[in-house]
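Researcher: Hi, I'm a grad student and pretty new to this. My advisor asked me to get structures for two proteins we've been looking at. I'm not sure of the right format, so I'll just paste the first sequence and hope you can take it from there.
Model: That works fine. Here's the first sequence with its structure tokens right after it:
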Amino acid sequence: MGRLLMRALEDGARAAGAARVVLDAVVERGNPPFYCRLGYRTTLHFPGPDKPLSEVHMEKDLAAPDEELAYPWGGEPVPLWDGPLRVWFGGPRGTVALPAVAGP
């Protein structure tokens, strides 16, 4: 159902002359992997301004061919900091946070 709704939104945006779709997705709720499978790229990570969750800013070029991206690293920008990083994965038992290290 979610895939059908997003396709309808994208088709409507194209028909209205939009070049891209931009959205924010909550990481801890497992939303980014869904959007990556639809071809959305993460352009920014940021803390949720109104809740104790992290979010990603994602966008999709509507003129580009559909491309399914892997998450978390497919289409991901390089983090803006070096040091500890928490990576979130969705699985059959829920969301799992794993430690990672950003930087070279």
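Researcher: Oh nice, that was easy. Here's the second one.
Model: And its structure:
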Amino acid sequence: MTATPDFAVPRLVVVDDTDPNIRYSPSSAFSLDTKGSLNGVGWGGDVFNQTITGTTVNASLSYTFNGTFVRAMVAAEGEIEWNCSVDGRNIGTVLTQFVDQVTNFIACDSAGTLEGTTGPHTLDPLPSDPLDSVTLRIHNSDPSVRYSNSSEDWIWQGGQANATHSNGASVDFAFNGSSVALYTIVLSNSGPMQFDANKAFYLLDGNSNSTSFDLPASMKANNTGNYTDILNYPLFTVPNLSTSPHDIKVGTAYNTSDLPQYLAIDYFLIKTHPHVSSSLETSGNSSSSDNGSGHKNIGAIIGGTFAGVAGLSALFLILWFVRRRKEGKYMMLNPTGSSPGYYRSTGGEDATLEITPFEYDSQVLLALQDEQNQRNEIRQHLDSGVRIPSADDAIEDVPPTYTED
């Protein structure tokens, strides 16, 4: 199966492999690496929090969560197979394993688990907001991410980033959390001309003093020696923020290179406060039916390991089958990676918010299905259209109240 695209589920709760609620079995089969030993081996980028819990033998793990969507992000070398289930029911296993990627690829996700069933499916929201003191992953297509696109400066890359190298282009992100970090994709070309290092900046809460940061030049994957796009690359982190709402503006600085590196927005990570205002909480039940109406699920996730949000209680289980053991090789969980989440309706009681942030032509859809082949091609940076909220649209704090219509 093909993994659920990030723009279909742009908000995730990220759970690290070191979370005490993850049950590894047998525990003696797993070892913890806190040095990020697989970082930089392939083009998948660094593992989340520099930790990976891995095994070289047949083993399993389980995690109990509240939510309507779950995904496992892993790192692996060698010949490894796995299957995943939720509450005893098998969920889709992503069959494509990019050998050269190594880190941060999707092992499985639960998209479509309820497809083919009949009748309504009722979710019972939790009595209190489950998003206190968690890490949220916000994809670049989320409505809280607003682009200055009057001159069509921002270009959808066909993979998972929205990028620009135009001077003066910027993006604003409204959030509520104690820290915020931006992750990018370091872009490359397959030809001899590569992108040069560049500068960008951010402004927090309208502060007139900007902070600059580096956009790295195109990079090679260590395991292939070839230039390739590098995923999950951290650009900056702003820690120790107050409990009030915040807005961060990120923009390109003046550059003199003929081929400057793009400012590519992949996703933001925010850490929520210990307590979220009760105005973000919800009560009562919500339901959705599998009736072909086109309503989008609005729910939870796990990231490079797991996560959940208001909704149904479930047990997630993943089993690994190691067909060939290699000393020093790992099959790891890691919660960065591409992935999902949910929106809050801004309309009436029965309204449903459906976000289609970008329009895709057939070439882009093909690229999404064949990411590996796409890495060996020069990107044609054609703007397929970014949908920008108008100035009058209300920007909701992150995290919002999670509901399902």
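Researcher: Is there anything I should tell my advisor about the second?
Model: You could mention this: The radius of gyration is 20 Å.
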